[in-house]
Amino acid sequence: MPNKNELAARQKAPLATPADFDPQAVKDISGGLNALLADVFALYLKTKNFHWHMSGPHFRDYHLLLDEHADQIYSMTDEIAERVRKIGRTTIRSIGHIARLQRVQDNDADYVEPADMLSELREDEKDLAKRMLAVHGLCDDAGDVATASLLENWIDQTERRIWFLFETTRG
What we know:
The protein has 6 helices and no strands. The protein has helices at residues 4-12, 23-52, 59-86, 95-101, 114-142, 145-169. The radius of gyration is 19 Å and the shape is elongated. The termini are far apart.
């Protein structure tokens, strides 16, 4: 059984994952991915918030659209976190950690007009796509094609959600 000092040393030891990237690139990419993960969780919850509080004459269509979007957004979380682990770093650990890293602004208003909900989500999705592109650039510089490939798929999905939100809000 390891003693207290041995356990403390293990906690500080680098992860022994088989990724073969420059340590600084791993730090930069994982930092970018962890910030994206926090944003994705925040955007997921915001999308569900608007889904739960949708009202008005287009309730059913908007309610179902936001539920579909939330499912797509949530499906990214595990892949992002697992990619961080595969390249040798740790990922977010709590709601508090998410709150410290997220750049998506919460909306705790008691009432938001349906059109404002959709427009706000569209802008959040556009910002998310830009952040994904920035992390993609880090991957390109490091030769991390696997993470870049994942990001390309997530960017495409995000652009589709932007398109749907844009078309839904056109007058």
